[in-house]
Amino acid sequence: MAPSKRKVTRRQALTETAKAAGVACLGGFSLAAFIKSADPVDARALRPPGALSEAAFQVACVHCGLCVEACPYGTLSLAEWGEGAPLGTPFFTARETPCYMCKDIPCAKACPTGALDRDLPSIRDANMGVAVLVGHETCLNYKGLNCSICVRVCPIRGEAISLEDQEINGRKLKIPVVHSDKCTGCGTCEKQCVLGHAAIRVLPRDLGLGGKGRNRAGRNF
């Protein structure tokens, strides 16, 4: 037997439409609240070349994914639930796939909102982050060996990272030194570090270089 048709009055139709709209609005509000409450950025979340400051970037980025599609190396991803960046925003993890510093910067040129500076004059101005030697206890050079992988793989070879003579506890060692004014934060050094956990890491620049002191003892006062 065919199901009987339900008779719906105009008032009922309007009421049900209003309820459906309310559920949709509630769902949208919940999602927006979740995105807003998510951590602003993880220490490992590196932005594509030419990204605005983190706060401005999050306002300008519309999560379209065009920069991800434009990257020829698959470096970029849109953050999913639980990853180290706000949901839907582009980022890369240097230890997995670094930025290969394309001269024409296709990811930035694909950005329709200006969250990435499409007029970036050079990939050397990309300012994705800065490399920091975090593994002073694990870096082979601190153990007296002469590893130079991070220096040799650096795309800005001879400028962004160098091995410099240092005397530590009476031992003359060759220690990797990052020149932050030249380092773009591409992450190639972190990717190629021979250790299981890289001794050199790329951090967002404000985190890697540190901020101003909060009291009179701070170094910038």
UniProtKB/TrEMBL annotation:
Pfam families recorded: Fer4_7
Coiled-coil blocks: none
Alphabetical list of InterPro entries matching this protein: 4Fe4S_Fe-S-bd (IPR017896), 4Fe4S_Fe_S_CS (IPR017900), MauM_NapG (IPR004494), PSI_iron-sulfur_center (IPR050157), TAT_signal (IPR006311)
Keyword Repeat assigned: yes
Gene3D superfamilies on file: 3.30.70.20
Keywords tagged on the record: 4Fe-4S, Electron transport, Iron, Iron-sulfur, Metal-binding, Repeat, Transport
Domain 4Fe-4S ferredoxin-type: 52-81, 88-121, 174-205
Signal peptide: none
Molecular function as annotated in GO: 4 iron, 4 sulfur cluster binding; metal ion binding
Stored NCBIfam families: mauM_napG (TIGR00397), PRK09476.1 (NF007012)
Protein name from the UniProt record: Methylamine utilization ferredoxin-type protein MauM
Lineage: Bacteria, Pseudomonadati, Pseudomonadota, Alphaproteobacteria, Rhodobacterales
